[in-house]
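ping. complex inputs:
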Amino acid sequence: MKAPPFKYHAPRALAEALDMTAGLDNARALAGGQSLMPLLNLRMAAPDHLIDLGNIAELRGVFEDGARFHIGAMTTQRDIEKSAPIAGLCPLLAQAIHHVGHQQTRNRGTIGGSLCHSDPGAELPVAAMALDAELVVAGPRGERAVAFRDFPSGYLSVSLEPGELLTRVSFPKAGPREGSAFLEFNLRPADFAVVSVAARVALDEAGHIAHASIAVGGVQAAPIRLLEAENALRGHAPSREAFEAAARAAAEIDCDGDDVHPADFRSELCGVLTRRALTQAATRAAGSRHV
Amino acid sequence: MSDPREIALVVNDVRHARVVESRVNLADFLRHELGLFGTHVGCEHGVCGACTVLVDGASVRSCLMLAVQAGGKNVETIEGVAAADGASHPVQAALAKHHGLQCGYCTPGVVMTLIELGRENIGKPLGEAEIRHALSGNLCRCTGYQGIVDAGLDVFGAPADKGSET
Ligand code: FES
Ligand code: FES
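pong. complex structure:
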């Protein structure tokens, strides 16, 4: 089908976009359009106003700042994929991007669009959850910081107030002796994940686990962090037994299921992918000369 | 609600200025305004890749981009890939040689995707996995893909991978 009628706006500055977002009734922000355009074409969304953020230069780009780096919300997934700094600073994000959509969609799809659309099968929210991403949201009352873990608010919804726009996302740089892995199961490569797991492992000087983080996607409306399992790993040497215990915790996640991929199948995947992701992450951490 | 917009863009090296409704997508604009029917529309929601064109050199699904968003941009479609004398582009020739098309519905999107892949890897031979990865966003209901992959290998693969049989 064809998109329903709307009034199209193409602001060139964030301030202008924010005025429109706050001032226009039934307006939707258009990021890369790789989710909203299908919804428009399928007539599942019918905004009166479409505010295209694609011409706002200040919303694009990657910059470093101490121990973290920042990505503008309108930076394309393809820009992230091709960014040499990101591949070095944050391998997990680079590993996750490899699974996101197709080149034709990564060329236009943005990190901000993906995090705000919050599809349960999307990869970037899972990486953001594992990495403790921080968001900057701008609105009528100025900017506020939001921890990514507080951002998803339900199925395909996030905690943006009316008039607010996501402007940038920040991630920690990978530390010394840190490794990561992003694994997913799907029926065809590049499809949305049935289950995806992002894992980070940092080792101390003795080779024990100083810190681990595990996020699982595709199982509920928003990605899930396995905080208890992460804490249980701390101080242990990386071992099959330790990772099996984390995998058992992952397999206990109360998964949503459907006819094709029932809940118990997804639970099984959660366990298997968690064990594998932790194992790969720990191997990379041990081999990392990134000190 | 009518929301007409003036746009000017370059398509296959020709400049066009038009007034379009803002809700018209780039695929429909190319087909119905410019008469470039080579860009096919399979699903209209970003799944099949038949509508793939290059915008400023990057492959995009033209059903997921508004025509007004292409204002000021340089668009390449299947109509522009053959040489000036009409000779097929090497990707087109290889698809014909390797039976990489049957009904041809998916083919314009496949060609544009492979052209982008080649341009991004000039001088670097590509393997089957890279070609399959690049083609993951192009559905073909006829060929079973092997002929398409063989054509990609013929054009972009290392000499040892280039199939000689047809
Ligand atoms: S018609 Fe655009 S992806 Fe199918
Ligand atoms: S040749 Fe028929 S869909 Fe590909």
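The longest strand of chain A covers residues 195-203.
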